[in-house]
Amino acid sequence: MTESDHDFDTGLSRVSADTDGLHALLRLHTLLHERLGTELIHLGDPALDAAATGKIAQRLCVPAGTARERALLDTEADQRVIQHLILHPDSVDSCTGRRRRVALISNASAVADLGPLSAATVLPALESAAALLRRATGLDVHPLPITAHTPQDLAATVAALAPGFAAVCLAHTHPAYVEVVRACFGSPFCSATPGTLPHSRLRSSGRDPHRRTGRKAKYAQYEAFRPARREHVPDAAEPPFGRRRDFRNTP
Q: What is the pTM of this model?
């Protein structure tokens, strides 16, 4: 699909074109340079523009405009909450935002068809997945690329992060790493157990988007783990935990 518009004040024209893949995009770039030469002022990629925004951001859930409101965010207020949790350790989820927080983790060991990469390079894919999951579920999904060169390192990192999240999801991660993390979460020496996604809509939010593109996913599933806790019992109105299912990531 191609769209164009012309600015009569400047005499400049802008053309937007969709391609069916990276190869076609590179051919289009070459063709435009050859045909237009110096008349081509700027050639950009909207995917880079979208990526530069970060795609997802934190938001304040409490008012913080007045001194009294900000006082509820200071050390003394935090200590009161912590003391309450010491006396009532089962109330962490009801007194914090952990119940709505999901960690989306990858060590970039299996990024699409690109193979293992450095951890930072998988961040655009994690941010896209986090934005789509946020839109579909309303949960706070945090993209976290992790430098872990061995399955044991990744398992230790996931276990260390688990207390802050209702669920931990692995994406763009080689199955060999996933198996070790799963084994750790099933071990009595690990503070978490293999689990399920914390929201019923999260289980179906990424259902087979590749039917639109015809692309075959490679290691495109979310492996989800829920930390082993007894603090939070879902209310009757809250979606129950369901069985883990496979997902495909939108490219």
A: 0.73
Per the domain annotation, does 214 fall within a domain? yes
Q: Angle CA(194)–CA(195)–CA(198) in degrees, nearest 5? A: 150
Task: Round to whole Å and give the CA distance between 34 and 231.
Answer: 64
Strand ranges inside the chain, DSSP E: 2-7, 12-17, 101-106, 140-145, 167-170, 192-194, 223-227
Interacting residues of 64 by C-beta distance below 8 A, sequence separation 6+: 70, 73
Residue 181 lies in a domain: yes
Enclosing domain of residue 187 = 93-227
Residue 177, H or E segment: helix 175-185
Q: Are residues 104 and 217 in the same domain?
A: yes
Q: How many domains does the chain have?
A: 2
Per-residue pLDDT of the chain (251 residues; tens, 9 = 90+): 577 788 888 888 888 888 888 888 888 888 888 888 888 877 888 888 899 999 999 889 999 999 999 999 999 999 999 999 999 999 999 999 999 999 999 999 999 878 799 999 999 999 999 999 999 999 999 999 999 999 999 999 999 999 999 999 999 999 999 999 988 877 655 544 333 344 444 444 444 333 334 444 444 456 776 665 544 433 433 433 333 333 334 33
